[in-house]
Amino acid sequence: MTAEKNLAYGWITRAGRVLFIRRDPGAFLGGRWELPGGTVEKGELPEKTVIREIAEETGLKVRVAGERAKSSWPDIGGKPLTINATIFDVAEESFGDVVLNPGEHDEYAWLTPAEAAQRELPEHVRRILP
């Protein structure tokens, strides 16, 4: 039986642009742009994960507005693992500055989906762009 890892990401928009963050060069998938989010911990609801991860990675306070997409794929490192990701539409509770978590992400940008498509993205992020 293949193990599973669950991820939750947030689609945060301001003025028609979506927040993308770039993984630190020394991190897994370093240099690639992604949506803020991360691993669902044991016993945690994905909706709670995305709120927690966005706060940790960007300093933003958000609430879940709905589910945007789901995606699954095999582990890119070849482990017997299936990755399941849920992307949530999230709304900011207050419009603060983005404050990145050093060592995890080194840059952020508010991009249209078309602009994001021109960046180096993990395949699971590219698949959900409209």
UniProtKB/TrEMBL annotation:
The keyword Transmembrane helix appears for this protein: no
Family in the record: Belongs to the Nudix hydrolase family.
Annotated signal sequence range: none
KW Zinc-finger (keyword) present: no
An MF annotation (GO) of this entry: hydrolase activity
Name of the protein: 8-oxo-dGTP diphosphatase
Required cofactor(s): Mg(2+)
